[in-house]
C-alpha cells in the first residue's frame, strides 16, 4: 500500500528537500504541499493524505494550531511534527493534541522515511530516550499541574489492573515486545490491552497514553513506578 503524504512547511527549500528524499521511496507518495497551516484542512479534504509532515513554526497559522484542528476531526490523518527543537512546549502541546511523534529537521533521510512508515502503521515516533526527555519537559511545566494530575489519576482509575500496567509500561517508552516480556503476555494481547486503553480513555495514540501516565505522577524521573 502506498502511503500518501502531505508536506507542510513555510520554507520552500525544506519542502523541496523533503519531497526529494521521500519521493524516492516506492511505498511513499507526496500528494501535496502547503506553506501555511491555514491550507491544511482544505488540502486534507481534497487529497486524503495518510500522514502529514507538519512544521511547528509558521508565520500565519502555525503547525500547533493546524495539528489541533486536524486531529479533532474524526477522519484525521496521522501527524508528524517537524521541528528544530527537541522537546519544547509547542512540541508537547502538539503531542497532547494527537500528533504521533516528532522528528528534527536535520534527521537523516532514511530515519524520516522510517518514521513515516511507522506512523502509517500505527506506531509512535518516539524512542524510549526521547520519551524520557519529553516527560522531563512535561514534569517541568508547573502551570495547572495539580489539577492536571488529579484529572489524569481519575482517568487512569477507569482502567482494569492489567490495562493500567500496560499503560504504565507505555509511559516508560516500552515497545509492545518489551511489555510482552515484562508482563508475561503475548504481543497480540499487549496490542489488545493498548487498544482498550485508547478506547476507554478517548485517546488517539500511545504518546497520549504516556503523557497521561506522567501527568498522573505514576512514574519517577527514572521511569520506575511510584
UniProtKB/TrEMBL annotation:
Residue limits of the HTH luxR-type domain? 152-217
Provide the species name.
Streptomyces melanogenes
User: Which keywords fit this entry according to its UniProt record?
Assistant: DNA-binding, Phosphoprotein, Transcription, Transcription regulation
Extract the InterPro entries matched here: CheY-like_superfamily, NreC/VraR/RcsB-like_REC, Sig_transdc_resp-reg_C-effctor, Sig_transdc_resp-reg_receiver, Tscrpt_reg_LuxR_C, WalR-like
4-aspartylphosphate-modified residues are where? Answer: 55
Supply the name of the protein: Response regulator transcription factor
Xref: PANTHER family: TRANSCRIPTIONAL REGULATORY PROTEIN NARL-RELATED, TWO-COMPONENT RESPONSE REGULATOR
Looking at the record, the residues that make up the Response regulatory domain are 4-120
Q: Which segments cross the bilayer?
A: none
**Per its UniProt record, what Pfam families does this chain match?**
GerE, Response_reg
Q: Does the keyword Cell membrane apply?
A: no
Amino acid at each position: 500500500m502506498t502511503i500518501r503524504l502531505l508536506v507542510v512547511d513555510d520554507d520552500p527549500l525544506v519542502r523541496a528537500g523533503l519531497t526529494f528524499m521521500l519521493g524516492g521511496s516506492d511505498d511513499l507518495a507526496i500528494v501535496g504541499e502547503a506553506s501555511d497551516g491555514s491550507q491544511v484542512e482544505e488540502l486534507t479534504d481534497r487529497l486524503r493524505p495518510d500522514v502529514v509532515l507538519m512544521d511547528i513554526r509558521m508565520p500565519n497559522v502555525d503547525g500547533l494550531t493546524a495539528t489541533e484542528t486536524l486531529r479533532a476531526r474524526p477522519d484525521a490523518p496521522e501527524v508528524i511534527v517537524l521541528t528544530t527543537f527537541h522537546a519544547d512546549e509547542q512540541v508537547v502541546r502538539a503531542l497532547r493534541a494527537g500528533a504521533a511523534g516528532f522528528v528534527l529537521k536535520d534527521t537523516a533521510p532514511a530515519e524520516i522515511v522510517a518514521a513515516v512508515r511507522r506512523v502509517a502503521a500505527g506506531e509512535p515516533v518516539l524512542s524510549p530516550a526521547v520519551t524520557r526527555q519529553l516527560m522531563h519537559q512535561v514534569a517541568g511545566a508547573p502551570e495547572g499541574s495539580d489539577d492536571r494530575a488529579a484529572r489524569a489519576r481519575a482517568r487512569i482509575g477507569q482502567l482494569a489492573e492489567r490495562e493500567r500496567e500496560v499503560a504504565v509500561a507505555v509511559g516508560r517508552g516500552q515497545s509492545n515486545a518489551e511489555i510482552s516480556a515484562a508482563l508475561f503476555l503475548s504481543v497480540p494481547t499487549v496490542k489488545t490491552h493498548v487498544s482498550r486503553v485508547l478506547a476507554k480513555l478517548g485517546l488517539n495514540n500511545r504518546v497520549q497514553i504516556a503523557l497521561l501516565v506522567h501527568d498522573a505522577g505514576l512514574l519517577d524521573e527514572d521511569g520506575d513506578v511510584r
